[in-house]
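[RESIDUES AND BACKBONE]
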Amino acid sequence: MEENRDRLIVIVAGYSDEMKRFIRSNPGLESRFKTFIDFPDYEGEELQAILGKMFDSAGCNLSMDAMVKATGLMMSLRRGRGFGNGRAVRNIFEECLARQAQRLAQREKIGSIDVRTVDAADIPGKDELPRLL
């Protein structure tokens, strides 16, 4: 870090208390890391927007019922210590796609609209969150 400091940026990220402990664990680190940025947890609307962008990027559309269920799920996520923000949304997104695949595997015939459409059954329930987060 020191030899290339004019052309190197080192970013470390984590929960505030753990990062403070990490930086203080070595006097050399404490003298090298001077800038700290604390990012608050995303709000429910922001989490919903992230989830929507993930579905858009994957070429998926949510049915109206799926949209309502997904919005409720994003609004219900508890923030605070241990909350994964974008990571939590990505885990939920991946679970939705896995559920969609399982649902479609039960059908004899699948069209392109089926593959692009996420239904409410594909959105996990609030009671399933602990294993996803």
In short: Residues 1-39 form one domain. The first strand starts at residue 61 and ends at 62. The chain is about 55% helix and 5% strand. The CA atoms of residues 91 and 132 lie 6 Å apart.
